[in-house]
Amino acid sequence: MLHGSPIEQANRLFAQKRPADGLALLKRAAKEGNVDALMQLAVFDFAGSHGARDLPRGRKWLRRAVEIGHVDGALMEVALVANGSGQAHPDWTGALALLRTAAQGDPVAAEQLELVERMSVDGQGRPDALPKGEPLSKTPHVVRYRALFSPAECAQVAAVAGPMLEPSAIVDPSTGTLRPHPVRTAMAAVIGPAKESLVIRAINHRLAAVTGTSTEQGEPLSVMRYDISQQYRMHIDALPGTANQRIKTAIIYLNHGYEGGETLFEHGPKIAGQQGDVIVFDNVRSDGSPDPLSRHAGLPIVRGVKWIATRWIREADYDPWTYRPGT
């Protein structure tokens, strides 16, 4: 006889290599209205665990969980409606309506709503206006946008990423498994589509606007925290042997007040960003090949802590659900 919650029982079955039994148990519990079982089934479908990824089916499990009252599920649903995961198109207006409902009983949702309502955006969450870029270098091509994001927006990015921070890692091409990042020693987190709140979605829209690309070309926003002596050694952001190359990079400086940590281009400027500033640079030459002049580093931190967020932008649309570091 099985004991414990449906989640505990299912986990034991999965550990015994009985995934069909574990899924059947969760589905029975979900049918009876168990909100944790509903959320677990949704997460499995989003991640492609114990079967192929099925975003529309995951959305159905999630909707039922939200109807019963799952608070975190409500924020996840806002994100997925906004970015269009599991539905035909992104729906900013629908997501905003869901966020307003969630904000009535959830202080986290209320904080996000307050931030969004202070933004100057259109009906799709895209910016109404942009500051003029400041050219810093022609070759490599580097442009700075001062105060593109408010202190509150920067703090929100760090708050979303903070609980997910882990040592930087990259996929080993020979084994397909994660290994320590060879040149970046920071802690890092990726804000994937299930965590892409309306604040993050609007930030990604703004980055698309200043880079002259579509939001769908961007990888999920990567957030990095550098403590004393941590750094990102000289590298280029373009990837070897990929069919959908990283053509541009946008870096948001989420804070200032630290010493060291400047962004240094080997053949270009040395930049100490202020909170809310963004730099944008090209990673490829006119023929699409990696540009060696884009080599750059994040210098070691001497005092304090540095937070940045990076958006690597591809040549064509990118599926954020398939993201793996460095691929």
Automatic annotation (TrEMBL):
UniProt keyword Glycoprotein, yes or no: yes
Entry GO MF terms: iron ion binding; L-ascorbic acid binding; procollagen-proline 4-dioxygenase activity
Record-annotated Fe2OG dioxygenase domain positions: 217-315
Pfam families named among the record's database cross-references: 2OG-FeII_Oxy_3 (PF13640)
Matches recorded under Gene3D superfamilies: q2cbj1_9rhob like domain, Tetratricopeptide repeat domain
InterPro entries in alphabetical order: Oxoglu/Fe-dep_dioxygenase_dom, P4HA-like, Pro_4_hyd_alph, Pro_4_hyd_alph_FE2OG_OXY, TPR-like_helical_dom_sf
Cofactor dependency: L-ascorbate
Alphabetized UniProt keyword annotations: Dioxygenase, Endoplasmic reticulum, Glycoprotein, Iron, Metal-binding, Oxidoreductase, Vitamin C
Ligase is among the record's keywords: no
Protein name, per record: Prolyl 4-hydroxylase alpha subunit
